[in-house]
Specification:
By secondary structure, this protein is mainly β. About 10% of the residues lie in helices and about 40% in strands. It has two helices and six strands; from the N terminus they run αβββαβββ. It has a six-stranded mixed beta sheet with strand order 4-3-2-1-6-5, with no helix packed on it. A hairpin with a 3-residue loop joins strand 5 and strand 6. The mean pLDDT is about 85.
Length: about 80
């Protein structure tokens, strides 16, 4: 899968069915190529324009399913 396809997918939290946003970046191991974390920007793009921190950083182990249109994650929200 290409990153351009991956970042078009909506990320949804399984715990509360909340839309978290879309994948904007990811962190991976340079030696193995394994993805460690997804970086997801929220739905409020105007607010994120002025902030330096991503809205959600999701460990790859918390991804439950990657479908054709969405990515389902299982994370606890504060």
């Amino acid at each position: 899968m290409l990153f351009s396809d991956f970042k078009k997918k909506e990320v949804i939290n399984l715990k509360n069915c909340q839309k978290l946003g879309r994948v904007t970046d990811f962190e991976f191991d340079e030696c193995t190529g394994q993805i460690f974390k997804l970086i997801v920007s929220g739905n409020n793009k105007f607010a994120c324009f002025f902030c330096n921190e991503p809205e959600f950083v999701i460990c790859y182990k918390d991804i439950k399913q990657i479908g054709p249109d969405i990515i389902i994650v299982d994370i606890c929200m504060k």
